[in-house]
Amino acid sequence: MDDHRDLRDDRRDLRDDRRDAARERAELARIEGISGKWSRLRGRMAPPALARKRALLVELASLARAEVAQDRREIREDRRELHEDRREAAEDLRR
User: Fold this and answer.
1) Burial of 17 (0-12, 13-18, 19+ CB in 10 A)
2) What pLDDT is stored for residue 9 in this prediction?
3) Where are the beta strands (DSSP E) in 1-95?
């Protein structure tokens, strides 16, 4: 029974890792897109260009906030998994 639970947990962890990697690739693509747009606007001071620069900064700040929130969730998840692993190791020692 424990083997089934371990296998299920391993599969869930792998699925989570793949999802996280896909999300990180998408975020990187967005950041690179913002960087490219910012580079094209460099030196421009006309009101439309400044408005676009502001919009890019707002988007970048939003991405940063989302990344910090995701980092916190991952830290909680890692702590939970570590606690679970320690508990399982302690149970194994008792057998």
Assistant:
1) exposed
2) 82
3) none
55 vs 32: CA distance, rounded Å: 15
Instruction: Compute the distance between CA of residue 34 and CA of residue 78 in angstroms, rounded to an integer.
Output: 31
H, E, C per residue of the chain: CHHHHHHHHHHHHHHHHHHHHHHHHHHHHHHHHHHHHHHHHCCCCCHHHHHHHHHHHHHHHHHHHHHHHHHHHHHHHHHHHHHHHHHHHHHHHHC
pTM for this one?
A: 0.74
Q: How many CB atoms lie within 10 A of CB 16?
A: 13
Q: With both helix axes pointing from N to C terminus, report the angle between 2-41 and 47-94 in degrees, rounded to the nearest 10.
A: 160
In the block, residue with structure tokens 């996280």: 20
Q: What is the pLDDT of residue 88?
A: 84
